């Protein structure tokens, strides 16, 4: 853009009255009274008089003749009012279009979440969101953390939740909760009666029943056992937490799962939690979004709802989302 064009743009902004002033002028023309126009627009009469005088100074024109019988437009004021009407109508069309775009954005929310978050935390958050936004249609894609990142980067989701040890590349994030992973076995497994904790090195060399590569649980376990030689080849590799739990309950072998996911089975003694030592099995649960595009509209509202404490058996929440 040329300097001359930029200069005209700046001077135009300095010389053309703002929309509030133009709306006041239109009201005076319609009602024939400055006081009536002020009441209609919800401002005081002195403020209305000041606004008219400001417009007159800016334009260098007398716009309104005031008398005890009321206010009438000057010839220049009548002409300016005709121009003002077009500007205000254009502004109203602009506002209506922007509102329509906001409405289209706010009418839907696409969420992608890792399975643990989707099953154990997200339902409560979505119920709370519906109370505040009953007309927002929510769709949920549940999978592993890698899938969540792919959906966000492809603009196929508005907000995501992951449970891996790090923020996926290209995404901004806020920690919304913490979760603990636990070693579990079926009631008949030899470890169920074990009195001493399982050392990290032994856990690393034991074939486990695991989720598929790309799952947040698998990523956390890989990172935690890396100093101890890494994970042994899986005994079984399954695509869902439910399938993993069923295999462990049947006695097929041990697994490492979210404490959120096994609360019911532990309470019913279908699974037994085995203590471990020498390894930290905790992880952050994060909300994620494309870098530079912090959530807006219903996605922003859902993110704010993660600040609420969980119900019984939930993960220990942070005091609020914090940047990761």
Automatic annotation (TrEMBL):
Residues 17-74 form the HTH lysR-type domain. Residues 290-324 are annotated as: Disordered. CDD domains: PBP2_CysL_like. Residues 315-324 have a biased composition (Low complexity). One of its GO terms (molecular function) is DNA-binding transcription factor activity. InterPro entries: LysR_HTH_N, LysR_subst-bd, WH-like_DNA-bd_sf, WH_DNA-bd_sf. Keywords: DNA-binding, Transcription, Transcription regulation. It comes from the Bacteria. Pfam families: HTH_1, LysR_substrate. Belongs to the LysR transcriptional regulatory family. This is LysR family transcriptional regulator. It comes from Streptomyces triticagri.
């Amino acid at each position: 853009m040329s300097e001359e064009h930029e200069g005209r743009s700046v001077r135009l902004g300095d010389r053309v009255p703002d929309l509030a002033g133009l709306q006041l002028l239109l009201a005076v023309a319609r009602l024939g009274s400055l006081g009536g126009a002020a009441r209609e627009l919800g401002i005081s009469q002195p403020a209305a008089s000041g606004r008219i005088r400001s417009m007159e100074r800016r334009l260098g024109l007398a716009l309104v003749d005031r008398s005890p019988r009321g206010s009438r437009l000057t010839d220049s004021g009548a002409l300016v009012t005709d121009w003002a009407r077009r500007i205000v109508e254009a502004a109203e069309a602009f506002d209506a279009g922007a509102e329509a775009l906001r409405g289209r954005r706010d009418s839907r929310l696409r969420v992608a979440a890792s399975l643990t978050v989707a099953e154990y935390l997200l339902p409560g958050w979505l119920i709370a969101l519906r109370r505040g936004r009953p007309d927002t249609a929510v769709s949920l894609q549940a999978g592993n953390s890698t899938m969540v990142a792919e959906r966000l980067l492809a603009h196929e989701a508005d907000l995501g939740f992951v449970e891996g040890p790090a923020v996926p590349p290209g995404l901004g994030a806020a920690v919304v909760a913490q979760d603990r992973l636990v070693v579990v076995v079926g009631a008949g497994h030899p470890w169920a009666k074990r009195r001493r904790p399982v050392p990290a090195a032994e856990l690393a060399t034991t074939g486990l029943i695991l989720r598929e590569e790309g799952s947040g649980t698998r990523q956390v376990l890989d990172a935690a056992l890396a100093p101890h030689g890494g994970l042994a080849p899986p005994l079984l590799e399954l695509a869902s937490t439910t399938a993993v739990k069923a295999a462990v309950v049947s006695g097929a072998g041990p697994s490492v799962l979210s404490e959120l996911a096994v609360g019911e089975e532990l309470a019913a003694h279908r699974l037994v939690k085995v203590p471990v030592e020498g390894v930290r099995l905790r992880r952050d649960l994060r909300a994620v979004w494309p870098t530079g595009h912090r959530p807006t509209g219903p996605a922003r509202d859902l993110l704010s709802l993660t600040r609420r404490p969980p119900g019984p058996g939930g993960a220990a929440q942070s005091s609020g989302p914090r940047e990761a």
